[in-house]
Amino acid sequence: MWFLMRQVMRYGRYVAWTVAAAAAAGLYGILSVRKEIALFGGAPHIIEWWEPYIWPPVAFVIVSRVLRMVLSRFAGAATAHMARLRRGDIFGPRP
Questions:
Q1: Which of 19, 25, 52, 94 could form a disulfide with 32 if both were Cys (CB 3.0 to 4.6 A apart)?
Q2: What distance, in Å, lies between the first and last C-alpha atoms of the chain?
Q3: Per-residue b/e over 49-80, b at no fewer than 16 CB within 10 Å?
């Protein structure tokens, strides 16, 4: 089971980076082809020349950190559960 957790943590990092890169590429694609954008029915916002170059790296950092945080919380919960299983706290004491 520990082997599986190591594999999840190892490849989860690459999955998080891939999802973050896809989000950044999607944001770049949206910002680079539009002249103005109106989110949620608000007032139109004129896209400046620098925004297609600045916001995708920001989105990459935010998405990758959020996904890594989710992954580390999952790993922490799984590790705690494995420790409880080893101690016998879940199914009663070991025979």
A1: 52
A2: 21
A3: eebbeebbeebbeebbeebbeebeeeeeebee
* Higher pLDDT pick, 92 / 16: 16
> Tokens 């989110």 appear where?
39
Please give the Cα distance from 66 to 63 (Å, whole number). Answer: 5
pLDDT computed for residue 89 by the predictor: 74
Amino acid identity of 35?
K
What CA–CA distance (Å, rounded) separates 65 from 16?
8
CB 16 within 8 A of CB 55: no
Q: Which residues contact 72 (CB under 8 A, 6 or more apart)?
A: none
Q: What is the pTM of this model?
A: 0.79
Stretch 3-7: mean pLDDT: 81
